[in-house]
Design goal:
This protein is mainly α. It folds into two domains: 30 residues, no CATH class; 351 residues, no CATH class. The chain is built from 19 helices and two strands. Strands 1-2 form a two-stranded antiparallel sheet. The chain is globular, with a radius of gyration of 24 Å.
């Protein structure tokens, strides 16, 4: 009797098969091996974590953090550095109530600026890894999902937080990604926890109530969906209310003069400002995502993009606001990349976009928020090429791009 040994990370199954021979039939047994899916998935996640660590390390090495950041009065990073040093007096709302990141930095026994940098890097790595899981959840293959993670972590909008880690966005971006993954998996208890973390980093997390309700309404009666959404939102609302009641703020930065100034600056050349916001956030991913016609079937998630756009009304950092659309945009674009006939060209454009932060850093005098440099212009050019590629592909053979 022969001994048959299965290869590592495989599952062995004894299969019986009947064959015809000489007018009769004979049954034979043979061993069929197939990859162990759990082991394979674990190995893929090991690869993803290693890739995320490598990408973060490379960007940390090539994009320095200027020593003078956070020294200018009445800027976001100035407020958060003061809060991390325990100097919270005179901080206006909403900055005074965005406690999560400054509080963690304050209680860790390390240099303040170094701690901000390390935490920002860890949050961006975490966002990339969770994004990989989210894209896989919606059906993309391992390779496409890994490319999405690497490209997301290399988008201009993400890499900017390597240069300026003193802003409150990195933990909010991580919580945002986790919220979308948990909603897709319908893990409402953990979702409530993620939203609580999000609102303690930035109050924007409260807006997640809309996609949450719309997603639950797909399977539940509207009243039942509303009650579930209310229960999920209760802890984050309570946590933020407690912070607002207990933490004093010196006035508000959202005054009418501030909003009027934002409108004067941002809406002076509004169309160009919108294009800049797209190029300096996710770039080519926006164009590819728009081509996914199946997005119209995913109202709960596309509704989030509408809420992201509402940020544009009260501020000028449009690229920072536009970046929060990435859980929807990256998923939609990844599904297009996986199936589109022009897949090779689109993937090449995604890869060519990766050096954009380097172009700004070394050819444009550094990455500047609200100041388009050559890297942002390069991304804009790639967006035009992507749009042309998609249009030509559709004209040659118009088919519905299904997700």
């Amino acid at each position: 009797m022969a001994m048959v040994h299965a290869a590592p990370n495989t599952t062995s199954t004894v299969v019986s098969k009947s064959i015809s021979k000489g007018g009769g039939s004979t049954s034979i047994d043979y061993i069929e091996t197939s990859p162990n899916r759990d082991s394979l998935r674990l190995w893929q996640y090991v690869q993803v974590v290693a890739a995320a660590t490598l990408v973060a390390a490379v960007w940390r090495l090539v994009i320095p953090t200027p020593s003078g950041l956070g020294s200018t009065s009445w800027t976001d990073d100035y407020f958060y550095l003061r809060m991390a040093r325990g100097q919270s007096a005179g901080i206006p709302a909403p900055f005074a109530h965005r406690l999560l990141l400054p509080s963690v930095v304050h209680f860790l026994p390390f240099d303040t600026r170094l701690t901000f940098g390390v935490l920002a890097l860890l949050c961006l790595m975490g966002s990339g890894i969770v994004m990989y899981a989210l894209v896989r959840h919606w059906g993309a293959a391992h390779g496409t999902s890994a490319l999405a993670m690497v490209a997301l972590m290399s988008c201009w909008g993400f890499v900017f937080y390597v240069k300026n880690p003193y802003l409150d966005d990195p933990p909010a971006l991580l919580a945002c990604t986790a919220a979308f993954l948990l909603l897709a998996r319908r893990d409402l208890i953990l979702l409530s926890g993620a939203l609580t973390v999000w609102v303690l980093a930035r109050e924007d997390g409260l807006a997640f109530a809309l996609p949450l309700y719309l997603a639950l309404r797909q399977t539940d009666h509207p009243l039942r969906a509303a009650s579930k959404a209310a229960l999920v939102m209760l802890p984050p609302i309570g946590a933020l209310a407690l912070v607002v009641l207990l933490v004093p703020a010196s006035g508000s930065n959202l005054s009418l003069p501030a909003v009027t100034y934002a409108w004067r600056v941002a809406h002076w050349h509004a169309p160009l400002w919108v294009l800049y916001a797209g190029a300096a956030s996710l770039g080519v991913w926006w164009v590819i995502a728009v081509s996914n016609r199946a997005m119209r079937r995913y109202q709960p998630y596309t509704a989030w993009l509408f809420l992201v756009g509402l940020h544009f009304v009260v501020g000028t950092d449009w690229s920072r606001y536009a970046l929060y659309g990435f859980p929807v945009v990256i998923v939609a674009a990844s599904l297009v990349l996986q199936n589109h006939r022009a897949r090779a060209i689109l993937m090449a454009l995604v890869i060519l976009q990766i050096p954009a932060p380097l172009i700004d850093q070394y050819l444009g005098g550094g990455m500047r928020l609200n100041g388009p440099g050559p890297g942002v212009l390069w991304t804009g050019l790639l967006m035009l090429v992507a749009a042309g590629t998609l249009v030509l592909s559709h004209l040659r053979s118009p088919v519905l791009t299904a997700a």
